[in-house]
TrEMBL record:
Top-level taxon in the UniProt lineage: Bacteria
Organism listed in the record: Mycobacterium adipatum
Lineage, broadest ranks: Bacteria, Bacillati, Actinomycetota, Actinomycetes, Mycobacteriales
PROSITE patterns registered for this protein in UniProt: HTH_MARR_2
Span of domain HTH marR-type: 25-156
PANTHER family per record: MARR FAMILY REGULATORY PROTEIN, TRANSCRIPTIONAL REGULATOR, MARR FAMILY
UniProt-listed GO biological process terms: response to stress
InterPro entries, alphabetized: HTH_MarR-typ, MarR/SlyA-like, WH-like_DNA-bd_sf, WH_DNA-bd_sf
Protein name: MarR family transcriptional regulator
GO terms assigned for molecular function: DNA-binding transcription factor activity
Amino acid sequence: MEAIIGGRTASTMPGLDIAEQKSWQNFLDSALRIYATLNRSLADAHGLALNDVRLLDILDSSDSGSARMGDLAEGLMSLPSRVTRQIHRLEKLNLVTRVASPDDRRGVLATITDDGRAVLAEAMQTYSAGVRNHYLGRLSRSQITATGENCRRISAGLQADGRPAKLGRV
C-alpha cells in the first residue's frame, strides 16, 4: 500500500513525494553524467580536468591574471589543500606560477602563464562544443532560459552570505 503525504504519493526518500524524488534523481543523474562527459573529453583532448579549466578560467578572467589561493578554493568550491595540489600539478605543466602576495607575505598568488592562456583557449573550444552538444542541444530556448533561472535561484539560496560566487565564465 502506498503512503500518502499531504495528498501526494510518498517516495523512498523520506519527506519527498514521488514527483519530487524523480525530479531530484533526474537532476543529479544528468549533472553527474554531463560533468563526467565534459571531464573525459577535456582529459582526452587536452590532458586537463574540467576543474583545471575552471581554475584557469578564473585566473584568465581576473584583471591581473592572478588570484589568491584561498579565493581560488572558494571560487572552485573546493578544499584549499586540493587547490594547492591542483596548482602544483598545473605548475609542472607550466600553465600557472605561484608567488608570494605583494600585499600579504603569508598569502600566495597563482598566476596564469602565456602557455596556460593558450591551452585554456584550446580547451574552451572543446568545452563549449561539449556544452552545446550534451546540454544546450537537448533543450529548447525556453527550456534553456528556465533551467538557467532555476539553477541561479538554487545557487543563490545555497550561498551563505548572499554574494555571487566568482566563478569565471565556465
